[in-house]
Every structure is written in C-alpha cells, then in structure tokens.
Amino acid sequence: MADTKLFFLVTILLGIAICMSYSLSSYAVVYYGYGQFHFLYRELFASCLGITIMWGLSYFNADKYLLSFGLILLLVSLLIIIILPFLPDSYATSAGGAKRWLRLPNISLAPLEFFKIGYIIFVAWSFSRKFTNSNVLSFAQQLYILIPHLLVFLFVSVIISTLQNDLGQIILLAIVFIIMLVCAGGRFSLFTLALSIVSILGTILIVVSPHRIKRVREWWVNIEYLIHSYSPNFSIVGDGVDIGGQVQNATYAFYNGGHFGVGIGESLVKLGFLGEIHTDMILAGIGEELGIFGIFICVILLFMIIFRIFKIAFRLQTSFYHLFCVGVVGLIGFSFVINSFGETGIIPIKGMAVPFLSYGGSNLLASCIAIGLVLSLSSKVDLGK
Q1: What is the residue-wise DSSP string for 65-81?
Q2: Which long-range contacts does 19-22 make (Cβ < 8 Å, 24+ apart)?
Q3: What is the value of pTM for the model shown?
Q4: Cβ(323)–Cβ(183) under 8 Å?
Q5: How far apart are CA 222 and CA 78, in angstroms?
Q6: What residues form DSSP beta bridges with 101?
Q7: Could you report the per-residue pLDDT of 243-264, keeping only the tens digit for each?
Q8: How many CB atoms lie within 10 A of CB 102?
C-alpha cells in the first residue's frame, strides 16, 4: 500500500497554496483586469489535477515503466525547450529574456520543470548501473564513469543557459546531481572534483551575463548595508548601486508579519510593492499574512514530506529506486532553500518556485508527478516502523 501520510502531507500544502494564491494575487487581478477568482480557479484546477496524478501514479508499475517514463519526459521536454525559441509569441511565452512556456489552449507549460524529473530518473538509473561495486572501484575508475555524466550535464547546462536563461535551475540540478553521486557511492575526491567543475561553470555563466552580475552586485550591496547597520564605521563599497527593491520589500513583509501575521488578505507588500508575490515570492506573502507561525507550519510540512521520502528511499532494496527518491528529496528541498535564502537576502535572489506552494501549474504538476512516482515505490517497502 502506498504511503498515505506522504499523500496527505502534500495535499495539505496544496490546500495552503490555493488559499494564498487567492489572497496574494489581488493586485495582479486588478492590474491585468482579470476576474476576481482568476488565480483561485487556476490554482484549484492545477492542485486537483496534481492530486489526481499523485493518486493515479501511486498504482504505477515502476519495475516495468519507470525508466521508459523518465526517458520520455527527458527527451520530449528537451525537444520542446530546443524548439521554443523558434515558435511565434502566440505559442511561446517569454520571461527573463527567454521563451520558457509552451502556450496551449487555456494553459501554459514550462517544459524545464518536467525535464528535471526525467533527468533525475536518468541519472538514478545510470548511477545504479555504473556504481554497483563502488567500494572496490579506484578513483580513476570512478572518474572514468563520471566523465560521460559530466559531459551530459555540461550539454544540459548550455541548453538551459542559452535557451532558457535560467542559471538557478542549473545550480539546482548540479546540487541534485552531486547529492546523487555521493549516495551512489562516489568517493569524496570525486565529489570535490564535481563540485569544483560545477562552481567554475557557474562562475563563467555569471561573468558572461550582465544581468546576473547586476543581481550579484545588488545582493552584495544589501549585505554591506546590513553590516553597516551593526557597524557604522564599515565602508559601503557599492554605495550608489541599486540595492534591489524585491529583497527589501520581502524582508519588510517578514518584519511586518511578526509572529502571527497581519491576517489573510491584509498584506501591504502585495499591493504592487513586491512583484510575483503569489509565485516566486510567496514565502514573503505568507510571512506577512500568517507571520512566523505560518512559515513555521509550511516548513514543518515540507520537512515531514522530505522525511517520508527519505524513509522510503532507505528501505528500498533497489539502487535505482533509492537514488531516484534521493534525487526527489534534493529537488524539493533545495528548491525551497534557494528560494527562501533569496527572499531573505542570504544569497542573490533567483526566480525559483517553492514546491507545492508557489502559484503555477508546471512546477506543481511536475512536483506531483515526482511524489506520485515515490508513492508507487513506497508500496514496495514496509513503513510500519
């Protein structure tokens, strides 16, 4: 029997997302001239569809079809990513200087969200085959195994950076890749090598992009101002640089929310001060309306989801399934970490959705597909203890 606790934990988070998408989208409704319940209906539909997908996939025959399903997701979504830039605007929606959504009747889909699930399945399958006897493999043998995977990752990074202009997703995939490498039995020296290569690649992608350099400078000036507030003698090197209103308004939202928030529908920053508050900046909106208590509840629910997936992962006997579950944990967990750290100014802000909470059908459906596949694997283990 599939893990019902995991299913209901995700469903509760989706319920919170439905309520917050309605409350936080009021300014966008007025600005774009939508109907009052525009975002509510769309989020409700996506959530119900995601719950249905989770339930349906819980009966999925992973032994026969998991690899095929993953490869189809990987190749189809990669093909769509490649052809998106050549489609007219009526079929492709742009954001961040790139065409990221395939526009269908009454719905838009971001193929990159589904690509990540397919990529995790592929890496889990490949690592499970190549690292079967990792304890007896020398560093040179493991490096020989890793090089093709690094070349594939490099190819993926080039495609995403040039056609999607999304460094955040590359960083996320790199973190997940390294976690799966370690769990597959890769040596620590291999881990450091992979981390070094990814760091160099990330630095290059930042340096060659004026837009990314601007974000890093804004983030650094915010850090300098924070240090200056505690130490007035500290010199602000970047004085005069635009410090970025998004982070300032997000931190104000957290401050204004206090312990228990200002109440549902009473947020101030959602009134045009904080863009995308119901999508990428939803934690700030939750923090203002529900306070630290609301953020705490969401974090606890997310950690309980991660705990349930870990519990399933470490009771699975098949390396392929174990690594896939670990990859899903990395994808969900670090998506949250990158988003929350960006909103609070700890790292440069990235336009990354919070799993199960941010408004947007593609990330929600992709996350539900991942959970549905984990549920199908959970029926293979005893979770009673």
Answers
A1: HHHHHHHHHHHHHHHHH
A2: 19/264, 20/278, 20/282, 20/285, 20/286, 20/289, 20/357, 21/278, 21/359
A3: 0.91
A4: yes
A5: 37
A6: 93
A7: 556 777 888 888 888 999 999 8
A8: 20
